[in-house]
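hey so u asked for the seq, here:
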Amino acid sequence: SPSLTHEGTGRLWIGETGMPSVYFQNYPTQQDPDRIRVSDCRVRNQAIGGFDGGKKKRNSLLPYLEKLEHDANGVTCVYRIGSASMSLAAVATGQWDFYGATALEPEDMAAAVPILQGAGAVVTTLDGRPWTIEEPSILAANPALHADLLAYLNS
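ran it, C-alpha cells below
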C-alpha cells in the first residue's frame, strides 16, 4: 500500500485504491489508525491551502498566486516550500482545504494520490485532466471545493 512517513514524528499515512485512508499519529506505538477525511470547506474565500511551483519552476506558480491572494474572491493561501507530499497529506487529513502545484516531480505526488483519494479528495491536473504519474501539475481538494477552485483558476 502507498504510504507517507514523516520521519522523526512517527506520523504515518496509508492509502490503497478503493479503500479508506488511515493515519497513525504515533506509529508504531499507536495500534489502531484513525480514518481520515478531507475538509468539508465549500467556500473558496474561506479555504486554506498551499500552492507550489516545484523545485525547478517556482515562477510558474506566480499567476496562480496573484489570482488566489489578490482577488477578493480568492482564498487564504499558504505558500509551501518543502515537501509536497506532506502538504498533500495535510489535505488528506483535513488540516488544509486544498493543495495545488504547477511543476512537481512524480515522486513528490505518487504515494500521496491514493491516500488523498481514500480520504475523499478529487485529484486532477490544474487544467482539470485526470492526474497521472506523468503529469507535473496537481490540484487536490474535496469535491465541492475542487470544482469551484478549478473553474476559478481556469477562468
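The helical segments are 62-70, 84-92, 106-109, 112-118, 143-153. The CA atoms of residues 46 and 75 lie 6 Å apart.
lmk if thats what u needed
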